[in-house]
TVP38/TMEM64 family membrane protein
Amino acid sequence: MFTNIIGWLSDVPILAAFFSISMNIAAAITGFLPSAFITAGTVAAFDLKLGLILLIIGEAAGAIISFILYRKGLTKLTSSFPQLKNNKLFFKLRNIEGPAAYFMVVLLRVLPFVPSGAVTLAAAYSKMRLLPFGIASTIGKIPALFIEAFAVSHALKFNMELQIAIFLLAAFFFLVYYLYKSYKLS
């Protein structure tokens, strides 16, 4: 669906670029929407190089905006629930700052299976300032975006049957993982 929208918007490249960046921001704010479709649409509409630049801009803007929103929300939450401040994990997160916080964000952004929303939430709760967070988040996200965009770029060159097979295989593994997590938690 996203690739169809981006394809339609590609007649007006500036609009397609704005849409791609906006979708990345929306995915970052929600904290759970997958960005793989955004990557696929952006790389399909633009070439790998320009698509990667747009994806980096979108991810950076999304991380910064969600950091600000999460911090405001956490301030209200901890004032409404003061017992959260006494939680050991929250206390450790709250007191991390400086280089330790910076490298924590870079490392967690590089790891592909750590949800971006969780990283942003942890950083927003810490004493980390916005500028170091934005820099660390962007630096950490570049390798993951490069790998994702490169893989998508090559996958788009496959014939349609192979693309569908890869999608179905990925969906199958996601379903198995989801069912395993659901079963394990119950």
